[in-house]
What we know:
The protein has 305 residues and is α+β, with helices and mostly antiparallel strands. It is built from 9 helices and 16 strands. Residues 97-245 form the Flavin reductase like domain.
Amino acid sequence: MSTLAPGGAEQQPLEAFNKEALIKRNPHADFAAVQAARPDFAPNQAWTWSKTPNPAWEIGDGANPGAEWRGKEMVHIDPNAEGREVTSNYKLMISSTVPRPIALVSTVSKDGTSTNLSPFSYFQNVCQDPPLYSLSFVGGGGICDTVENLLETGECCISIISDWFIEAANYTSTNTPRGVSEFALAGLHASPAMIVKPSYVSEAAFSIECKLYSQQEIFSRRTGQRNAVMVLVEAVQFHVRKEAIDPKLETVKIEMLRPVWRAGGITYGTAFSGFELPRPEAFGAVRLAKKLDERGFVKSKVEGQ
């Protein structure tokens, strides 16, 4: 809501709708004290390879030895149960669908006078032909600047967040009013795009110029009001640091990308170790070589489930 300055001139609002006050995702009364008790982040930690959790795994082995999954009591949750808050479903979903990549999305208003930069973790690959990504914008308080700009102009840039600028990227989620630059507040820099008008984040090792492919409005089952907008955007240009891409321009090196992922609440994570796990060999050859039919592994889907 805008206010009127003396003389009747319209004045910029102090801030935008504060979603954090509604969600209350920070579980700590004194986060500064909690953080002070924790060890320092290791910015020079190197990527390490390990074996898979069970290199000796064979067909039919199921979960690995020592995995305690039998006899565990399950809690059954109805997302539409009477009295259950929407924010409870949100917290449950974001804490269980993990890890999630974070898209730092930049847009420009239709008249070109205002930019916006904000992080979104409802983000994922969709297709490679055409190269599509999904973004979902959720929450009350009316349509956010990112959605408005994207739908009006059909353009955005997505930058992948790495650990060397996570605090700056996080600050772009502050509820600034329209027209206030998140780039400046966060201390991030803008690199001009080649095809679209929005800039991408200079500090990022990987960024994507995108054009709007399609959109889907989502409505609340409780109120009937629009509660979210999901868009598909098509990549029209990729930007990647030379040191972070293989010579064939196909694979980004995760040890150079150092991505930050999102979990539930205010929890974030990094990727410093991993293993390689090849996909299974062609089933026909394995079926014959290991005599899977004779050994009782080949069953109908109903029986096998």
